Amino acid sequence: MKILQKKFGEVNGHPVTSTTLINDQGMEVASIDYGCIITKVIVPDKNGQKENVVLGFESIDEYMKHSPYFGAVVGRFAGRIKGGSFELDGQSYQLEKNNMGNHLHGGLKGFDKVIWNSQVITGENETSIIYTYLSRDGEEGYPGNLEVNVKYTLSNTNEFSIFYEAVSDKKTLVNVTNHSYFNLSGNLKRDILDHQLTLKSESFLELDEELIPTGEILSVKGTPFDFRESRNIKDGSESGHVQKILTGKGYDHPFLLADNHNQEIVLKDSESGRVLTIETDQPGVVLYTGTQLSSDFKIRGVKSRKYLGLCLETQGLPDSIHHPHFPSSILDKNEVFRSTTKYIFSVIT
Fold it and tell me: Is 322 a catalytic residue?
């Protein structure tokens, strides 16, 4: 196991450091302390060719100018909150409105746009970097001083795990996720429409025209949202389902997971042979197929475009504070929020 560190750039005069975790199989995970952004994940294909399978940039300036949350930890609240407002114990809170009058992914300066402290830990069979950040009371409108730890761990068995931990001195909302865009073709050789996805999910959330949950939980049966058996991502882009039209002929929907820590999310690319299995303790996953990716910038020499990557954001449900029948994302004073998501990379021949 190895760890490599180097300067990645500067933000307002503050140095940004890149840390690369490398296991004995040659798998690499690189991240920076700006936004805890995962910049690269290098894994082999069925022929042993090692390539990058996430979207990311080579410079901090590109992240600040163009990034739609590539690889970042988003919070305090991942997803949208309608109107950017909520109540806790009779107290009203107004958050920053950064998405059509709503609050998205923590606001104007969420976890993805701050510099985190970091510490590396080396071991014989795994190596880690721990990022820490104190989100002050009132930041982006949220109550409570929230201490957040994010731990990235790479094992010798090509398993990459993210451990989240947070505690607040006031009751608040917490819903964090990693916003990596995956493309298993390697080095963005193809888009993700021919990737196959399996989801252990029997239901998904209906969205309104602002992509906020209506509160209705819909069955996947008989719809292009049914991934209980493996199906191509392109099924969504080619579907006339009304929910697909809302999201730009693709997916941007929360699914409720029917199982946890049991191969509940599996993404495959048959041509490269790469397989990504995701296991989590979170109640849902947002499948986003990059339908809003703009084409006015390049990603390591490849022009950005729709369907170039997809996100599998393990998290609580968006706008849950306004829907009591959704799993709660309320964190009580001094309660410890903990969550784990594991990404397991393998190949099929």
Answer: no
